Amino acid sequence: MSFNGKQPTLVNQLQTDVPKEKVKAHLQVLGVFFHLLDTLAGTSKPGNVEATVDEFFQRSTYRLQVWLEQVIKIDGMEDFEKPLQDHELPPLDVALALHSYMLSPLRYFEDSELRFPQLKRMKEYPLASILNVLDPTGRGYDELKCLTAAKYWQNKTQLKFNAIDSMSKDDTRVIECPSCNTAASVPWNGDRGFASPGFEYDCSKCHLAVNHDLLCAGKFFKALTQAKDGPGFCLPNTAILVRGELDIQSRCASIVAEVWKCLQDEKGEIQPLKDLAELAATEGSSTVAFIANKLSRAESALRTESLPVLLRSFEHSYPFTQDVVIALHHQRPFIDTIYNQGWSASKADVPSDSDLNEAYMLYVDFLNLVLNIKRREPGWQDDLIWHTHQLMPQNYRAFIVDHLHVYLDHLPKGEDMNAFRRHYDNEKNPKSVAVWIESRSIVALTTKGTFLPDDKPAPESCQAGLAAPSFLVTEPATAIFASN
């Protein structure tokens, strides 16, 4: 591989910003995650491993939500400067979910600024906190070292701290009815359990038959109402501009106004969710697809090609902009690869300095190709440096924007198939902004639907997209890198 004259300087800068010690700590934690998932697979019945893993990832995502809402809440401005305390250590599966969540830097940044301000307490991923409580084998938490956190977690959440124990002993999760907000405990397992595509329960107050589709639609209407009525709110995936700045008051407000206009009736009101669900059913459609089709009507000022970007965070019912369950599935092969390459072993001399130097150079080569509007899918070595970089969000954002002049996102291939269009291909349309993605093949999850309007074909390629897409026909397309 040939490198230009500027690359050694950039490599040196990266090794300062992303020190080798951080990379090696990250590798150790990836090894712990491998053993966690390996232990989980060992508890599964033969032939049922993938279903067990999917349920585990759904539970882990829910437990991440619980951790943010009940364990590391912010009570005052002074708390933003307070690092994570011993009692706030995340359970190991929550640490795994948080890791995958942070590897979607745009969505994680938007959520930390607008939805989960407690995320800002973590200046970076808590690698050191996790390593400090590992048992001597490095395969998991030492029970005595994490006793304070375990007791606090269990007292606050009434859930088991140990992820494997939680799988077998915590039978239910809490759900709010998307129509009347009445809370209910619903089972994880069974044909109508939350982990099943056939999930359904009857609300005890409004008697709505709640399923995954209605939870997603309810999340959409909650976000839309908040964004319309409350200052500082926006629809997910709409606030971040190309350089990573936030624009809530003007850009986001215009998008919200147009979305509301598409859905309102003659009185300027939006029909109750229950009524919309009934209308969708009469057309043989899911509620979310029904909403997408209403937004894609011809007289709308919304760009139909950008609707999947606008709506992709409503393809799941968790409160995050990122679909953390999908992200966990996509990170699993990478965790396996790192372990099988021997890099996540606890040996001090693995990987060697020369191995890491090569990984840094590969990462620089990847970034320079992005800068020159060329593409190369990152390999596992440069992915390791890229991922470690993203685990320091403020550092990553500053470095990437300074070098590339755009806030480079990280999207696993397959996750956002509906969010990309052929005319976004930057080889044909040089005014689009590159978003580079990993190539990870996984089996499509039957619990995940699509917001793609019924008459819109899926794209042929998932190789490029918009870092700051234009959502309104009156909104100019974003120029490519500012220096070009």
Automatic annotation (TrEMBL):
Q: Which top-rank group of organisms is this from?
A: Eukaryota
Spell out the protein name for this chain: Uncharacterized protein
Q: What organism does the UniProt record list as the source?
A: Pleurotus cornucopiae
